[in-house]
Every structure is written in C-alpha cells, then in structure tokens.
Amino acid sequence: MSTKPPDQELWDSFVEAKRELHRRQADFYQQASDRQAVLRAALAPERGAWQQGTAFDYLNAFHYDVIPLLPELFRWAVKSERWAGPAREVIAGIPSDQRIPLLEPLFLDQLAAAEDDDYPNLASLAVRCEAWPLLKRLVQQAGNHANPDVREVVDHCNQTYSPM
C-alpha cells in the first residue's frame, strides 16, 4: 500500500476545504432567512477582519445582495485603507446599467463634503467602476483645491483618464 507524499496530502486537504467552503456559501445563500442583515452586521467596523473579509468574498461570488448593501460598501470603498479594494471590486460587479445611477447620489454627497484624503479614494472608485461622469465631477471640483496633493490627483486623472 502506498502513501501519498505529504505535499499531496496538504493539497488534497486544501481542495476539500475549498469544496466545503463552496457548499457552505451555497447553504447560506439558499437557506438564510435574512442574508442582508447578516452581511450588514458582518460589514460593521467593529466586527473584525474575518467577518468583513468573508463578507466581501461572499459578495464577490453572490452579487444579489450587493445593491441593498451599497451604502456600507461605499463607506468601505472611500474611507478604508484595508478594505477599499475589495469594496470597489464588489461595487464594480453591479451591472453597468445600474451602477452609475445607484452610485451617483452616494458619490456626490461624499464629494460635497470631501476631506483631502477622500479625493484619491473617490477617484479610484470612479475609475474602477468606469463612472466617468463622476470622475469628471471630481476633477472639476478638485481642480482649484488649495491642497497640492489634491491637485496632483486631478493632474493624474487628466493625464490618464481624460479620453474616457
């Protein structure tokens, strides 16, 4: 009787864990009575990295709950260093015909009250979501900003995305 090499055993265990993960995701999707409430709670700032990261992973795989959670996802996309990328990815997964109309009011409210460090995050969100009208608004507002770092964001956007 031959035994598997240790590396193969590790790999097989990893594959089985991944299979189990997908089974559990499907169970949550199909059987949870209030997925959005659970996901909203998992995205709360006090819940911690495992809850938040798992919520972002789930929302990337199962897009049906993204739109009702857009305000929470938007906050992470604009105000978080750790979760900005995953939040932007989830938001970018909203169908393109719905994405800009849903994103616009949140974006413009944040832009109206933007602090200096919000501009790069808002620009990154607009670019990732291909929300060119929103990026144009940001560039217009930030063009005469007193902070040279904010004007640098504008210069970068104009150089890189002006054809859009």
Overview of this structure, please?
The protein is mostly helical and 164 residues long. It has helices at residues 6-31, 35-42, 49-61, 70-79, 84-92, 96-112, 118-128, 132-142, 148-161.
Helicity level: over 70%
The proportion of residues in beta strands is: under 5%
| Through-space gap between termini | 63 Å
Round the Cα radius of gyration to an integer and report it: 20 Å
In DSSP terms, counting alpha (H) and pi (I) runs of 4 or more, how many helices? 9
Find the count of extended strands (DSSP E, 2+ residues): 0
Which residues form runs of ≥5 with pLDDT under 50? none
**H and E string:** HHHHHHHHH
Descriptive keywords:
164 residues, mainly alpha, 9 helices
Write the layout of secondary structure elements.
Elements: H1 6-31, H2 35-42, H3 49-61, H4 70-79, H5 84-92, H6 96-112, H7 118-128, H8 132-142, H9 148-161
